[in-house]
């Protein structure tokens, strides 16, 4: 069985930057750093930072106690929480991905200019909640065109996307809005790494007869990769580590495609590939 990696996969710029920031902020024996929310959506990497660099993960700013440094996660936090954090006296280190800061700034600027904001994304995702908080006008968060059907929209809207969504679905939302609203300002805030990883999965899944997507089960961009792969290759599987691999998946398969979400570290990917090679040896021995 041939094991083939997607042309683009794994850590994006924003995640690499955040990991480096967290490692450089490592606490001493008497002090620790803490991230406000999960730094990235990958529990294995979060545990590595905790064990090797004394970086704790807190649910929110109310859990801060004796930490010397507070690190803002890649997905950002709400504007209100950031302002409160800056009054605590704790050193604030902002690891928000620049691709997430962009829709925050757009939401603030456009709402101040009188536009209501439409966000294509998951209202429960921390990135989206953060972006919403920067708007001074009503915000409409939707995952599909259908969810806009009953929305009361003004004559001026600005539309942005969660950074990890599919461009095709974003364009469906935009087309619908242009048919309903007099003035629509469109900002494509889907990050380049997301687009490149998705296109690479499409290319690989179209020729593979089994696909393995590696990443956190709570990672939005990883889920998108899995859904794309599943649509083109019915035998597609989403795993967090090599421990979830099942040798039955690979019987009589000729090409195994592998990709990984933007929060998946290289060491996890390599562990999966090694296990795939072991499975292949056993199946063909």
List the helices and strands and how they pair.
Elements lengths: L1 E4 L7 H12 L8 E4 L6 H11 L1 E4 L10 E4 L6 H7 L5 E4 L3 H15 L3 E5 L5 H7 L6 E4 L13 E6 L5 H14 L2 E4 L5 H14 L4 E5 L5 H13 L3 E4 L15 E6 L5 H18 L2
Parallel strand pairs: 1-12, 2-3, 2-4, 4-5, 6-7, 6-8, 8-9, 10-11, 10-12
The structure class reads alpha/beta
How many strand segments? 12
Cα radius of gyration in angstroms? 21 Å
Shape: flat
Uncertain residue ranges = none
Q: What strand order characterises the main sheet?
A: 1-12-10-11
Describe the fold and architecture.
By secondary structure, the chain is α/β, with parallel strands linked by helices. Helices cover 39% and strands 19% of the residues. It has nine helices and twelve strands. The protein has helices at 13-24, 43-53, 79-85, 98-112, 126-132, 167-180, 192-205, 220-232, 266-283, and strands spanning 2-5, 33-36, 55-58, 69-72, 91-94, 116-120, 139-142, 156-161, 183-186, 210-214, 236-239, 255-260. The strands form three sheets. The protein has a four-stranded parallel sheet, with helices on both faces. Strands 3-2-4-5 form a four-stranded parallel sheet. Strands 7-6-8-9 form a four-stranded parallel sheet, with helices on both faces. Strand 4 (69-72), helix 3 and strand 5 form a beta-alpha-beta unit. Helix 4 (98-112) packs parallel to helix 5. It is flat.
């Amino acid at each position: 069985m041939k094991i083939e990696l997607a042309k683009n996969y794994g850590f994006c710029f924003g995640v690499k930057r955040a990991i480096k920031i967290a490692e450089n902020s490592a606490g001493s024996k008497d002090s620790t750093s803490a991230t406000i929310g999960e730094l990235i959506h990958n529990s294995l990497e979060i545990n590595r930072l905790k064990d090797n660099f004394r970086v704790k993960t807190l649910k929110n700013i109310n859990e801060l106690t004796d930490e010397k440094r507070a690190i803002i996660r890649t997905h950002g936090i709400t504007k209100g929480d950031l302002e409160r954090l800056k009054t605590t006296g704790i050193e604030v280190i902002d690891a928000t991905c620049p691709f997430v800061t962009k829709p925050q700034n757009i939401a603030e600027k456009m709402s101040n200019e009188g536009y209501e904001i439409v966000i294509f994304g998951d209202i429960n995702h921390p990135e989206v909640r953060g972006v919403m908080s920067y708007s001074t006008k009503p915000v409409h968060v939707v995952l599909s065109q259908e969810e806009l059907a009953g929305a009361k929209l003004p004559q001026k809207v600005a539309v942005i996307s969660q950074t990890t969504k599919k461009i095709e679905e974003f364009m469906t939302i935009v087309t619908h809005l242009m048919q309903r609203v007099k003035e629509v300002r469109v900002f494509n805030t889907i990050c380049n790494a997301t687009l490149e990883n998705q296109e690479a999965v499409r290319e690989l899944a179209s020729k593979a007869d089994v696909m393995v997507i590696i990443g956190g089960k709570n990672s939005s961009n990883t889920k998108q990769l899995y859904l794309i792969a599943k649509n083109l290759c019915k035998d597609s599987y989403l795993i967090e580590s090599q421990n979830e691999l099942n040798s039955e998946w690979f019987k009589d398969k000729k090409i195994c495609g592998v990709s990984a979400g933007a929060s998946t570290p290289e060491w996890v990917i390599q562990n999966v590939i090694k296990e795939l090679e072991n499975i292949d040896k056993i199946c063909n021995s």
